[in-house]
Design brief:
The protein is α+β, with helices and mostly antiparallel strands and 481 residues long. It has ten helices and 17 strands. The longest helix has 32 residues. The radius of gyration is 37 Å and the shape is rod-shaped.
Length: 481
């Protein structure tokens, strides 16, 4: 036949499908002899046209339709099940992550989710008609992504509280291993062609640009530490004849750095102190007054912002030297902050205060430190959804503890229902929270003024005379606690 077409039918592959080539060009794949004849009819090839059969003759069509469709169904389900949490995490982080790096990661996760959807579509083709040469490669890439995601979730959750993403990671891990085994059996990579050359210049440029972006927009902001400056300053003093001495103390805290923070709690101490700090122990300081000076708790302190408040301290019977054997008054401040770019504090924190000691003991039991006067507590979110997925829910609790002459705070960041056992008076033993969220205790500068001079100024003010000027004394070296 002079005008005969060259028709070649390939050998059955692992699923029983046979490729049909007409005049050297692939025209599709057939699962049965009837489908083969329909391909010929579609291409206008007469029924008596000679056919060359490779591997097996026209009687062999080993299509295992049930197994093929079942395998394809589970592949599609697994790939879409991988895409769903990736879409959820990526959509959240690309819009709501607290850092630039977190948003870039969100867009990257969204792109990976799209790749999983493409892989699911490729699975339909691979176990359907294999009309696309690279469908097997696309499915293989999708399964490898699922395996990587499951391993990442499980590795990141080592030491964390188990949550629903733990079950997702385990399920995806089991499925991806089974799917990878099936794809290796099918030799799904057969359609992949290795490129003969790579644009080295483009790759190097992308790597350099990516490295610079990661350093400037991700690494540098992450390692930048907050700079919180606090302090106290003694101002005017006055008293009435035979009455109490009133001393005004100016208290302030300022964010002098580049990182916004949440102010979890604040405290100031006014002590009566001996005259020679180098030879004085902390037990010799007499607490005159203490309290908060930043309200409401949980407020944000942005870079450059300052919060200040005056506290009026009353000293009864100020001229009774037996009752008040002070040589100086000493004022100090301390605030507890946590980085705003690493977590989100719930608004409920500002309204969560419990100041009933009996209720605190009832609700917290052994978890409450001894002497807890009040407690602030709320849920907190991590800086990105991927961290919420791996770390699970977190809760922050701040207790104000009355402990003699040095009241303090205890701060705890842990999953709900758990608490760090500090085993001591220092509130920041939670090293993991310090590293993760930038939890820190910032001690302000100390102010000290001679007590006799305060009395003299107060008497002069009472009599209407100009008070004598007092040079600010050199503050003593900070005492170790």
């Amino acid at each position: 036949m002079a005008n005969a077409r060259v028709v070649v039918v390939g050998a059955p592959d692992d699923l029983g499908v046979r490729e049909v080539l007409i005049d050297g060009r692939s025209e599709g794949k057939a699962w049965s002899y009837q489908e083969f004849r329909s391909i010929l009819s579609r291409e206008g090839v007469p029924e008596d046209n000679p056919v060359r059969w490779l591997g097996e003759d026209e009687t062999v069509w080993p299509d295992r339709a049930g197994l093929r469709r079942t395998t394809g169904f589970f592949m599609v389900v697994g790939l879409l099940a991988t895409a769903y949490p990736l879409f959820k995490i990526g959509a959240s982080d690309s819009n709501e992550a607290l850092t630039y790096g977190g948003r870039i990661a969100g867009f990257t996760i969204l792109a990976v989710a799209v790749m999983e959807v493409v892989a699911a579509a490729a699975a339909v083709d691979y176990w359907g008609g294999r009309r696309w040469r690279y469908s097997g490669v696309a499915v293989l890439i999708g399964v490898l992504i699922a395996l990587f995601c499951s391993l990442s979730i499980l590795v990141l959750q080592i030491g964390e509280q188990l949550n629903r993403y733990t079950a997702i990671g385990i399920a995806l891990g089991v499925w991806s291993v089974a799917a990878l085994w099936e794809l290796l059996e099918c030799r799904a990579w057969k359609g992949l062609r290795v490129p003969k050359s790579i644009a080295i210049g483009v790759v190097v440029s992308v790597l350099l640009a990516g490295s610079n972006l990661a350093y400037s927009q991700i690494y540098v902001p992450y390692v930048t530490t907050p700079l919180i400056l606090g302090g106290a300053e003694f101002k005017e003093s006055n008293m009435k004849q035979g009455g109490s001495l009133y001393v005004t103390v100016h208290l302030s805290v300022k964010n002098a750095g580049q990182v916004p923070v949440y102010l979890l709690g604040s405290i100031y101490w006014i002590h009566g102190a001996p005259a020679s700090p180098p030879d004085v122990e902390l037990s010799q300081y007499d607490l005159i007054d203490d309290g908060e000076f930043v309200t409401p708790v949980g407020r944000v302190l942005n870079p450059g912002e300052e919060v200040a408040q005056d506290a009026v301290v009353e000293i009864q019977h100020p001229e009774n030297r037996k009752e008040h054997p002070y040589e100086a008054l000493r004022a100090e401040t301390e605030v507890y902050v946590i980085r705003k770019d690493r977590m989100t504090l719930s608004p409920d924190y500002q309204r969560s205060r419990v100041d009933d000691a009996a209720r605190i003991v009832k609700e917290d039991g052994d978890g409450a430190p001894k002497g807890a006067a009040y407690r602030d507590r709320s849920q907190m979110e991590n800086s990105s959804e991927i961290l919420n997925a791996t770390r699970g829910p977190q809760r922050i609790t701040v207790w104000k503890v009355d402990s003699g002459d040095w009241p303090r705070f205890n701060v705890d960041v842990s999953p709900p229902g758990e608490r760090i056992d500090y085993g001591g008076p220092h509130p920041l033993e939670n090293q993991e929270a310090i590293e993760r969220y930038g939890l820190s205790r910032e001690h302000g500068s100390m102010a000290q003024t001679p007590y006799p001079e305060l009395l003299e100024k107060a008497r002069a003010t009472e009599k209407g005379a100009a008070p004598p000027s007092t040079a600010a004394p050199t503050p003593p070296p900070p005492q170790a606690r």
